[in-house]
Design goal:
By secondary structure, this protein is mainly α. The chain is built from 4 helices and no strands. It has one domain. The relative contact order is 0.18.
Length: 86
């Protein structure tokens, strides 16, 4: 994790981040988020150098995100309405 990633995670804590490997951890972690004052967040953002952060490849890495049969069936229902394409 580079410095920009760390700052980004502190200022925008509910955004996908590599430190969140599963949904259970996300639930526990989000319950403990301490809202910072805007001026503190602004001072953190002022320390960013450049404009890049890494894409969080490890976000929810322990979760099976493949759709199940019910999800696929619901997708069929969504895309059978001809009004969507007109």
């Amino acid at each position: 994790m580079n410095a920009n990633d760390k700052i980004y995670g502190e200022v925008f804590p509910v955004v996908a981040h590599d430190s969140i490997p599963c949904l259970l951890f996300l639930k526990d972690w989000s319950a403990t988020i301490n809202e910072q004052e805007c001026h503190i967040k602004k001072s953190h953002l002022m320390t960013i150098r450049g404009h890049l952060t890494r894409f969080p490849l490890d976000f929810l890495k322990h979760e099976d995100l493949a759709p199940n049969r019910a999800d696929i069936k619901n997708l069929d229902l969504l895309f059978t309405d001809e009004d969507v394409f007109t």
